[in-house]
Amino acid sequence: MRSPVQLVSAVIVAASLGTAAHAQDAIKIGFHAPLTGFAAADGKSAKQGAELAVQQANAAGGIGGKKIELVSYDDEGKPENAIPVANKLIGQDKVVATVSGSYSGPTRAAAAVFQRAGMPYLSAYAIHPDITRAGDFVFRTGTMGEVQGRAGAKLVGETLKKKKVEIVAVNNDFGQALTAGFKEAAPKFGLEIVGERTFGMPDRQFGPLVTQIKADNPDVIYAPGYFFNAGPLVAQLRAAGVTADIIGQEGYDSQRFIEIAGKASEGVIVTTSLDRDSQSPATRAFIDNYEKEFKDRVDMVAASGYTAMSVAIEALKKAGTQDGKAVRDTIRGNSFDTAIGKLSFNSLGEVKKAVQVQVVKDGNFHRYGVIDDLQYLTPPEK
To answer: How much is the pTM?
Structure first.
């Protein structure tokens, strides 16, 4: 059986456009994501977003007249696979920048490798704070977990005007970071945390947990998780008669969540990066082009993969060179008009942007609001 490092899927977009670029004339950009395993649906979305960004850039002339070659690997969502993938991208494939379309564990593991190599590395949506702390070549185009957690507390306290909150979080980096941010901001909004519980990544049956939550009788359930465990959790909560508002996060932001939870998904509110109802030309063009190209509804992960790859490509164009330091400085010193808004980065490589709030209505995500209060959304500096 081949190892994940051998499961390479090199996507040569030039060929798909009916043109052929000699290897020495192509500019290679790396990409890794969970293309198989428990998170394969997210990996597929992230990769499709990245592919679309490369296709569009190549159709517009590439970078300095050279075609872009996307070299992608499957990390299966496992940290232990991310380091050999990173080393292969750097040493064998000789990419000039890399985008992570993966979760926090693999992204944290790979970040240190790219930092040591002096290669720009962009995390599309992984939220753990340690990712950008790897060093000054590492950037995040998504919102870090603590910031999104603080936005969740503001949403509950100011917008929904609710007080009694139950926290129910997946017990990994994602859940811990979001919970930490929520709990940090909760006192500022007078929130009372009536219970705090966790569940495992593979959990799909939540009978005892649902019973405990029902007994706590919260007004709101703040439930960090992913579509594949949040879907069953939400369905079982509603089936048990729990009527409290449910607040999810970007891990819910997938049509798969709606399919799994069914009618129980209606009214669930999520903090995320993508506003489906935005009239921004960049956002509308992305949504329309993605759904036409892939015959599927867009999700946050696709938008994040597209955005991170677009930033990498635009930085290479603006830098006018493939030198890692010059590209790093270009990312840090510029702003980028993207599918998830206008982005700029602070000294830690963290993005500065608003948090979008979406609600499930009639089987799709729609705008519920936006949280743009810098008092709560400012990421830490170096």
So the answer is: 0.91
Joined tokens for residue 159:
């917008």
Find residue 100's DSSP bridge partners.
32, 123
Averaged pLDDT for residues 235-252: 97
The number of residues in the chain equals 382
> How does pLDDT run across 319-354, given as a tens digit for each residue?
999 999 999 999 999 999 999 999 999 999 999 889
What whole-number distance in Å separates Cα of residue 53 and Cα of residue 322?
A: 18
Q: What angle separates helix 173-185 from helix 104-117, to the nearest 10 degrees?
A: 100
In angstroms, the CA 373 to CA 188 distance is 14
**Cα–Cα distance between 151 and 131 in angstroms, integer?**
20
Residues 338 and 108: beta-carbon distance below 8 Å: no
Sign of the four-CA dihedral 344, 350, 352, 353: positive
CA distances from 120 to 10, 132, 312, 361 (A): 19, 11, 8, 39
